[in-house]
Specification:
Blueprint (H helix, E strand, L loop, with lengths): L5 H10 L5 E9 L2 E4 L5 E6 L6 E2 L4 E5 L2 H36 L5 H34 L1 E3 L4 E6 L6 E2 L9 E5 L2 E9 H4 L7 E6 L2 E14 L9 E9 L9 E6 L1
Antiparallel strand pairs: 1-10, 1-14, 2-9, 3-5, 3-8, 4-7, 5-6, 7-9, 10-13, 11-12, 11-14, 12-13
């Protein structure tokens, strides 16, 4: 049987790859949003349930929008009228300038024409602003998914009233679909070998996911007095089926 000398053993250990550090972790959302609306109204429909996956832009909740639709129509009519008035005031100003150049019109009358044109232009800009506001309020009456997401919580039912004058109320909670992160506490020694973008593996209930270091904490986590400092490391990874925030996991770091 061949014998390995001490120098040979040391050389062998030096060239073997170091075992990956496996650390306990827990799962968290990469992106989470609490959704509300800045406008008031009665909830007409809630179109999603917790656990449902939705695409970006899909309507999740709809307030009764009839009042906002009416105000939008009113603002559109006001803009049409203001546009016509501004065009007529501009023509009147041009006619006044021609008459003034022919010395038929006084300075005062020309100034009156200028004032009329300025007022009409200001009224037009105000009508445009009111139309924009009315359109925004109508848009706000529907809550849409801000990104591809899982619906985490639903905190409102049809028929309830949302009052924008009060503190914003969370109506729905969503979290980004397709991505999760595992949060682990890493000691100073392991931290020296890590950088953002480093490859890592996350293990959850026997399933293994390839990921990368997304964030490395700059401040030590709270711990017992005298204990060696540990820093939070977030490892992001792609998922197909939904996992749950708070689940136990393990992170294998290089």
């Amino acid at each position: 049987m061949a014998r390995t000398t001490l120098p040979g053993l040391i050389l062998l250990l030096a060239i073997l790859p170091a075992a990956a550090a496996e650390l306990p972790a827990h799962l968290a959302w990469v992106q989470r949003a609490e959704l509300s609306t800045p406008v008031s109204g009665s909830v007409a429909r809630v179109l999603v349930e917790p656990g449902q996956r939705v695409a970006k832009g899909v309507v999740l909740l709809q307030l009764d929008a009839r009042g906002y639709q009416a105000r939008l129509a009113e603002a559109q009519a006001a803009l049409t009228s203001a546009t016509r008035d501004q065009a007529e005031a501009a023509k009147e100003l041009e006619r006044a300038k021609e008459l003034y150049d022919r010395t038929v019109l006084s300075n005062h009358d020309l100034e009156v024409a200028h004032i009329g044109a300025d007022k009409a232009a200001a009224a037009l800009e105000k009508a445009k602003a009111r139309l924009t506001e009315a359109q925004m309020n109508l848009d706000y009456s529907a809550i849409r998914a801000p990104f591809d997401a899982w619906v985490v919580a639903r905190q409102v039912e049809p028929g309830e009233t949302v009052a924008s004058q009060l503190a914003p109320r969370t109506l729905l909670v969503v979290a980004a679909a397709g991505r999760m992160q595992a949060l682990a506490a890493v000691g100073e020694t392991e931290l020296r070998h890590l950088k953002v973008g480093s490859r890592a593996t996350v293990s959850v209930a026997g399933h293994h996911y390839k990921g990368h270091v997304r964030r490395i904490g700059l401040e030590a986590l709270p711990g017992k007095a005298g204990a060696r400092p540990r820093f939070q490391v977030a490892v992001e990874f792609a998922v197909g089926a939904p996992l749950r925030a708070g689940e136990s996991a393990k992170v294998s770091l290089p």
